[in-house]
Amino acid sequence: MHLFKNFKQISSLFLIVSLFTGCNSDKEHNKRNTKPNVVLVFIDDMGYGDVGCYGATGFETPNLDKMASKGMRFTNFYAAQPVCSASRAGLLTGCYPNRIGFSGALFPHHKIGLNPDEFTIAEMFKEQGYATACFGKWHLGWQKAFLPLQHGFDEYVGLPYSNDMWPHSNVTGEHLAAGVSRANMPPLPLIEGNKVIDTISSLKDQDMLTTLYTEKAVDFINRNADEPFFLYVPHTMGHIPLGVSDKFRGKSEQGFYGDVMMEIDWSVGEITKALKQNNIADNTIVIFTTDNGPWLNFGNHAGSSGGLREGKTTSWEGGQRVPFIINWPNNVPEGTVCNKLACAIDLLPTLASITGGRLSDNKIDGVDISSLFKGDLESNPRETILYYFHKNHLNGVRKGHWKLVLPHTWASYDTIPGNDGHGGKRIKKTIDEPELYNMMRDPGEQYNVYDYYPEKVEELMDVVENARTELGDLNVGIAKGSENRAIGKLKE
Question: Does the annotation mark 239 as catalytic?
Answer without folding.
Answer: no
